[in-house]
Design goal:
Length: 221
């Protein structure tokens, strides 16, 4: 049940702000209301749906400004993970990232949910490979925001091959072990992609140059 609702969110069948009721979901999915209630509670804990006074239970929303904020924060945190991976003299952490990439490549290309989950797992497992305690514990909070942003992005772009192309470029950059190259590719993959998406929506302007530069300076510190 939880998987079915998550799939609907990821595929854009349930959109940000859509109202969810136990009765409607139980009837449409042919399950009991207690089963629906349990699934909704889990998705609330995951951050994919929210309960709001006077508005009921709805798919969580992420604003264009939040999409850009999340992207900038992610690059900074991704580079914390990369620094730990590059500093590992044994090479085991980089080997772990290679395994993560192998898992991504094995995901069925014709299954949007499998592709989405592989995308999420790729970024999660880079943080895990770093061994950084804070990153590992921050991931569950981060994942919900990424999932919501990705769901909107994938619906708007309708380019199923794009994720593989971008992650292939990212993996090639990581293999160079050159921090500047890796950071530049993460910025292109995450920040530039987020700005393109927001522009595609026509919902908000890109960040001012000074703010954007400050964010990137922080990412490289």
């Amino acid at each position: 049940m939880t998987t079915e609702i998550r799939r609907a969110i990821v595929l854009g069948e349930l959109k940000p702000g859509d109202k969810l009721t136990e009765q409607h979901l139980a009837e449409s999915l042919g399950v009991s209301r207690p089963t629906v209630r349990e699934a909704l509670n889990q998705l609330i804990r995951d951050g994919l749906i929210v309960q709001q006074p006077y508005r009921g239970t709805r798919v969580a929303e992420v604003t264009p400004a939040q999409i850009l904020e999340i992207a900038r924060a992610r690059v900074a945190l991704d580079m914390v993970a990369i620094d730990a991976i590059l500093a590992d003299e044994t090479g085991q952490k980089l080997a772990d990232v290679e395994q993560v990439w192998n898992n991504f490549e094995r995901a069925p290309q014709d299954d949007p949910l499998a592709q989405h989950e592989a995308h999420i797992a790729f970024h999660r497992d880079i943080w895990v490979a770093s061994g950084n305690y804070l990153l590992i514990n921050l991931w569950p909070v981060t994942e919900a925001h990424i999932t919501l942003a990705l769901a909107e992005d994938q619906t708007a772009r309708s380019d199923p091959d794009r994720a593989h192309r971008l992650h292939d470029e990212l993996m090639k950059a990581i293999r160079t072990r050159d921090r500047a190259t890796i950071e530049r590719t993460f910025i292109q993959h995450t920040i530039d992609s987020a700005e393109e998406f927001v522009a595609l929506l026509g919902a908000a302007p890109a960040a001012p140059k000074a703010t954007r530069g400050a964010g990137r300076a922080a990412a490289s510190s």
